[in-house]
Every structure is written in structure tokens, then in C-alpha cells.
Amino acid sequence: MEKLLAQVSSYYTEKIERFGAQPLGVDWNGLDGQVLRFAQLCKLLPPEVPFSIADVGCGYGALLEYLLAQYEGVEYIGIDISEAMVETATRLRGQDARARFVVGTEPPHPTDYVVASGIFNVRLGTSTDAWCTYIESTLENMDRFSTRGFAFNCLTSYSDEHKKRADLHYANPGELFDLCKRRYSRNVALLHDYDLYEFTILVRK
Ligand SMILES: C[S@@+](CC[C@H](N)C(=O)[O-])C[C@H]1O[C@@H](n2cnc3c(N)ncnc32)[C@H](O)[C@@H]1O
User: Which one of 19, 170, 178, 194 is most buried, by most CB atoms within 10 A?
Assistant: First the structure.
């Protein structure tokens, strides 16, 4: 697991150092897709009640800006495996009293909600089996650190075959839905209707 995480960290560190605080710097190809993913994940959140939220794989903190524009009473913690990401996020958004950023792979304490956008996609040289084990153990942490629910996205196995890349992981949405339903909650939503080659799962407790 250490080797896997070290590879992921250096992959994203290279992106932020090369492109800076913009979607390309977290390996997204554009702002529209980045925000569309946030919109799916945020369907988990209550529209009018204050909440605390942990963002695992926060990148340069783009979700924070989205949340502050849409919700009142947000208490945010961003976690990222890449020190360079956390430095960038802290420089950009660390002065906000409602937010803080830490280096790591799991929240330092429980929050109402835990979300993760884009952390299960780039597998690099890791085998599919090892990557699936990694996804499952990360979901265990997201469950453990969230009191009201968690949400994440993955590239879909329903992507066009000729467009699939060997270094990316395409998860089976039905299998992850089933796992979340059996393991975490009766209330699970699978969102696979937003045009990107991916899906989002919301787990409400
Ligand atoms: C595709 S980027 C998305 C960043 C951000 N969520 C966004 O949508 O703007 C994925 C980020 O997750 C971080 N990351 C990947 N795996 C992680 C893990 N297991 N724990 C913490 N951070 C992780 C990477 O360093 C990178 O910054």
C-alpha cells in the first residue's frame, strides 16, 4: 500500500507543479467536468443545515470554493496525500476560518460528511486486484470518519472500450453499489446520468 500511495502522490505532485491551481493541475481536463462532479457529490448534503465535511483528495481546494458559494455554515477540512497540493490549497484558501488543509489519506477526526472526487481513477502500474483492495480500504475509512454519510466517484466500466487507458481504473458501478448497500447503509444512491464516463455513489446513514 505504501508504494501505491507514493506513486499516486508523485503523479499528482508533478501535475500541480507543472500546471498550478487549475483543473489541469489536479489532472482534470476542464472546469466544467470538475464542477459537474462536485454537483453530484453535493447531492449528499443538506441544503439548509450547517454541516462539517472532509474532502479526501482535496487537491488545491476547489471544492471549498464551490461549497462556500452554495451553503451556509460549512466547516471544511481538506486532506491530500500530496504535500504540494496541501501547500497550494493552504496558500490559496488557508486563511478562511471555516477551512483547513492537512497532508494524509484520512481525516484527522470524524465529520458529518466525507467526500472524495477523483481519487480512485489513476491506478498507474498497480494491479486491478490490488487497486480494488485499496478502494475498499479507503471506503472503510470514509465510513469510519463520517457520521451522516459519504460520497465518491469512479470512472465507469461502461466507458467505450477503445477509449480506455491501461493506467486508469474503470470500476463496475453495480459491484460498488452492492458493496455499499451490504456493508454501509440501506440508503445508497448510484448516479450514472451526468454524461461523464463515470458514476457517483452517495451513502446516507
Ligand atoms: C483528480 S485529483 C482531484 C482533486 C479535487 N478532488 C478536485 O476535484 O479538484 C485527485 C487528488 O486526490 C489526491 N489523492 C489521491 N489519492 C489519495 C488518497 N488516497 N488520499 C488522499 N489524497 C489522495 C491527489 O493527490 C489529487 O490531489
Answer: 170
